[in-house]
Amino acid sequence: SSSHLKLGDAKYMSTALPVEKTDEESEQEKEEKEMIASMTKSDIKVNKDKPWLYDLGMKSMVPEWRKMFNPDTLLTDVSAGITVGCVAVPLSLAIAVASGVPPEVGLVTAAVSGVAGGLLGGTTLAITGPAAAISLLVVGAVQEHGLEALPVITLACGGLQVASGVTRLGVMAKLVPVSVIAGFTTGVGAMILSGQVPKALGLAAPAGLNPLETMAFVGENVAGINPAAAALALGVSGAMFALPKIHPKMPSALLAVGGATMATHTLGLDVSQIGAIPSGLEAFQFAIPALPPVDALPSLGITTFLIYAMTSAESLLSCAALEKMKKTSYKHSPDQELVGQGLANMGAGFFLGMPVTSVIARSSLNVKLNAESRLPALVQAAFVFSGVVFFSDSIATIPMPALSGMLITTGIGMLSPAEFKHCFAVQKLDAIPFAVTIGGMVAFGLAEGIGIGCLSAWALNYDYGKMDVKEINFPHKQQRPPSGDVTYFSNDNVVETVEDKEPVTIDFLQSKVATVETENVQLQGRVITLQTDKKQLEASVGTLTTENTHLLERLEAVEMENEQLRGLFDTLTTIETTTPESATLNSPSKSTIGWQLQGPINFASMFKIDDLIHRVEEMGTDEKVVVLDMQETTSVEFTGVEELVNRLVEVTEQNPGTTVQMWNCQDNLLNALKQCDPNERIARFCSIKDETPYHFPAKEEAKDVHKVPYWYDSPHFQPDAK
Q1: Mean pLDDT, rounded, of the chain
Q2: 356 in Cβ contact with 348 (< 8 Å)
Q3: Number of Cβ within a 10 Å radius of residue 144
Q4: In what order do the strands lie in the sheet with 10-13?
Q5: What is the pTM of this model?
Q6: Which of 304, 347, 380, 622 could form a disulfide with 85 if both were Cys (CB 3.0 to 4.6 A apart)?
Q7: Helix axes 400-414, 252-267, angle to 10 degrees
């Protein structure tokens, strides 16, 4: 073809040879530039008209409560609740011991908070209770303010969570980077592990030692180790590692601690035990916590806010992970989750309990047990309640080394959080806040370590600037992606032109249709010619008997060629595409809306992501294609990309006719999407390595939907491109 393909200020021949641009612009070029300049509008403006949750979300919970009495799932849910309760009893005891509070406080907290969290939480299958990750925060609070201040802290923490959920500020809790949460989890695991080793060996270590000092103390007192205590702790820890491998649904914690208790009394082992705890309903003491002195309020407020921030972040992180394990009819709501956890903490505070979160270990077991409703959360709470009321005497005989062995297993499991692996795979610099958080916790304390970790994460991402979202005005005429090899171009096929750094849409379908129409006419003529040849050959067969064999062979060849041409004709007429349906752009029944994301995508982008999702939701529930142009994305971080992916997936699940596509994904974003969206729920289209980011696909690339770009800046023609 001798026609030119015009893009921006440059002109390219269809043979990939550049042509000098003219000095004067034509009227058509000016109009095209003005149109492209209007495609990208200013920052999106969002009208967030979602009402506050004045009713605490109870209206949306009514259908969830009805499902608890479904006869088809009742037996499965009750069985799951009992099994989770078997795990919750020993774990709550162990976490209470690790938190420096009486053992019965852990049981009472689990029983009370499990009801409120189960009924009003934002995730159907989540289990609420004391968490190992928060235990050291509780230790610090008790050491600084006394045990009598703990109910006040728990109550205030719950009040902040309820207020955040009612005012729909659930996104605020996501501002804590996942790398810092992972560092916090690892640091807590290391401190739990080091703190329980002396107890597991029957040693009484002084309070206030850091992990290194604790290990030094153990080394200096090897002679005082109690062999019976060490054997019990080792046996419980080994059983908790081995039993789930035998059967994943087995209540390994209860079996391990129960076996250790039986061994202690059967063999008469000389080890410390939990001791007497309040029996019956006496353990559940409802009271309004007394206010602390006025001069203690500032430090108490800091402690409360820290526990509020970490319990909220830990709960939302756990529920997001739980949502990926098993989808339910009720969609996970961060705001409702904060309301549920807040009410759970307030309830625990009124019963002189300790802070709670949505705990991933018990929740994931609930999923594995095929739970379907919120009933297992209530059943496990009732199981814990029954244990306190009816079996307090048996609980009092549990050996302390057994609980230490359980906590050692928990601490080991926290040393390598999966979240950090994802963070590091996306951005290597996330290792800095991860390590700084751990180091700060060990050297200075929990609050200081978390603060230093957050500051380091913000500092690393500050220079990248903030994320911007620009709305794209698509032309009225839409197109679908090219299929197969694009053979011919002409001036009429170019519907948009673009200046530097501006998106442009190329109508490949029009080019393909024009090509097909031309070849269609040619093929029809060829088919007529072949049919004439066929008749002539048939006549020759009757008259030229000596050439009969040769003519028959020729006839078969013509018929074969005829069929091939008809097949090619049908193929070109239908213009079948190799693009999967999930990635098909702009079907005639769908409208296309789009935004261009500029700058970094990280934990500081939460509000912009929230604005974007609200803007998408404002577009209605009609079938549509949501396009995100990612060519201006500068850097990515796991927390931000995961939030963006999760929110976009929610949009597609709530509106089945909507598809979401990311265009011009660069390598760093593709790597992040592999970590956050391994199942490719969001369609993505990327550029080619070592080439100008935007070019026409070569023949061998055209069939690979993941290598076909649809937005063009400075086009680059590969040598083998047609």
Answers
A1: 78
A2: yes
A3: 15
A4: 4-7, 10-13, 18-19
A5: 0.69
A6: 380
A7: 150
